[in-house]
Model the fold of this input.
Amino acid sequence: MGEKEPLIRYGIVSKDDENLNPDFINYECCKTHPLCEHIHSSKKMFSRSEIELISAKLGYSVFDNVGGNDKCQCKWKSFVVTKKD
Done:
């Protein structure tokens, strides 16, 4: 078996969270925006192109501002992952 190519994926964490755990243990979404809460509760890791597609549909940069407002305490964090078999 050869080595798997590493992939960059993004998950939502708290702005002051430096936890590298992509399982979001002990993290509560700020719940200031339905999109933010939905993304967090999905526990899905997103590619940059998926985030850009969401941004295009909503009309603002979801990558720069997850919840779309100043009260949002969430941010995207990059994780290096490998594809599951």
